[in-house]
UniProtKB/TrEMBL annotation:
Belongs to the SIMIBI class G3E GTPase family. ArgK/MeaB subfamily. It comes from Microbispora triticiradicis. The keyword S-adenosyl-L-methionine does not apply. Residues 74-278 form the AAA+ ATPase domain. It comes from the Bacteria. Keywords: Chaperone, GTP-binding, Hydrolase, Nucleotide-binding. The keyword Nucleotide-binding applies. This is Methylmalonyl Co-A mutase-associated GTPase MeaB. GO terms for molecular function: GTP binding; GTPase activity.
Amino acid sequence: MDVRELAAQARLGRPRAVARLISLVENAAENIAENMAGNAAGPGGGGGVEGGGTNHVLREVMADLATGAARPYTARVIGLTGAPGVGKSTSTGMLIRAFRRRGSRVGVLAVDPSSPFTGGALLGDRVRMQEHATDPEVFIRSMSSRGHLGGLAWATPQALRVLEAAGCEVILVETVGVGQAEVDVARLADTTVVILAPGMGDGVQAAKAGILEVADVLVVNKADRDGVQSTVRELRNMTGLAEPAWRPPIVTTVASREEGADDLMAVLDKHQAYLEESGEGRRRRLARARDEIEAIALARLRSRFAGLHGDRLDALAARLLDAGTDPYTAADDLIAALR
C-alpha cells in the first residue's frame, strides 16, 4: 500500500493505516534529527532533508492527508506532563474515558524516553491503557524520542496532523516532564496540564524547572496521600504571581479511582472557552504553524550547509585565524555559497 492509499485509509479512521503513517513520519523525523546534528551524508545522500527519501516521504504524507481532510490545527490538543511516578498515564486514561463519554474520538501520543539499545519506548503506555485497545474511537501511540529532541520536534507535530486527519477531535499528548519535554509539549498544545503528587517535592521542583510558566492547569494527583493540602497551598502561593487573564487552577484527583474527573473536565472546558473568547487559542495555533514552517526551513538550510565541501569552511577558518578576515565576512561568504 503506497502513501496515497495509506492517507485515504487514515482519513477513514482505519487504525492500521494511521499507525503506519505515524511510523513513516517518526522514522523520517529521526533521519532529519541526525541531519540537523551534523550527521547528514550530504546532497542526495543518507536521509537528508533535501536529498534521499526523507523530504519526499514527509511531503507526500502531508499533501495526501490534506486532500479532503479537515482544516489543520482544529483538533483540541491537551498536553500532559509531570515527573515520573505522579500518575500521568492513569490521568490520561481517566481523560480518555471522560471524552469518550461525550462521544469524542480521541487520539493519544505518549512520548517516551527511548531505550539506548533498541531505540524503542520504555514506558509502555499502551500496555497501561489496554482497556481502550478495542475501542475503534480511540487511537493510542507511544512515540520514542530516540535521543533526538530535534526529531521529536519534527515527529510529534506531523503525528498530530495524522490523528487530526483521522478524525480525532481531542488529542492528548503525554510526556515525561524532564529536561525540555514540558516546554516542547506546551508549544504543541492548546492546554498544558502539569501533574504533580504530594510528598514528592514537586512544588519546589516545578518552580525550579519553570514548569509553572507553561502550566494552564495544575493537577495534584494521588490526593488520598498525606500532604496534599500543603502541596495545594504551595502551588496556590506560586500561581498568585501568574497573569490575571488566566491563573492556572489547581485540581485534586485520585485518577486510579476516577475521583476528580468531573472537576478536571470542567476546568479544561473553562480554559477552552477562555482560548476561544480571548483569541489566545488562535495565537497559539498560529505559533504552532509558524514553528512547523520554521523547523522545515531551518532543516533544509542545515542540510544544504552540511553539503558544502569542508575545504571552503576550512579555508575561511584559516583566513580568520590569520587575521585575513572577520567572522561576519566569513559567514557572509559561506551564506553566499548557499545561493
